[in-house]
User: Fold this.
Amino acid sequence: MTKYTLLAFIIVLKSSLEYVVMKSLINSLIVVALVATLSSCGKVSGRFNEASVAGGSSDAESAKLVIDMSSEHIAKGKDTYIETCAPCHGTGGKGDGPASVAMNPKPRDHTNGAYMDKLSNAHIFAVIKMGGAQFGYPGMPAQPQLSEEKVKDLIAFVRTLSSTYHKQ
Assistant:
């Protein structure tokens, strides 16, 4: 191998490595920009404002979002669930809907009472209305089109899916 051939090889190798590094750097910057943009959704002054979403005037009030657990509201919530949530969460709420096959992480299992019982109604309300990315559920899309009443009915139905739910 002559010194010119070796020099040409080094130049080509260097150019290839620079291209790979630049492409990787650009992709990383795009990911960082997307994460920064998405993580700012639903925040006010750097802090999540759950009260405004839940219709309360303070964090203490929003944590006590009252849900009507009457059979009428549960039935309305079920209709919305089947239409809006079942494609991912499944009709029984186990996170096994037809769309879940392609999802990683899988949708939340709403029948898991140990987990679901830890969530406040206001938290569930916020996740439904604003999406789950800011709460660590990246696949959960926002449902801003749902009215406050529909979301409350939806929460009533979701609560009945839990393995620990007892009809009152």
Q: What stands out?
A: Helices lie at 3-39, 50-54, 59-62, 71-89, 113-116, 121-130, 148-161. The longest helix spans residues 3-39.
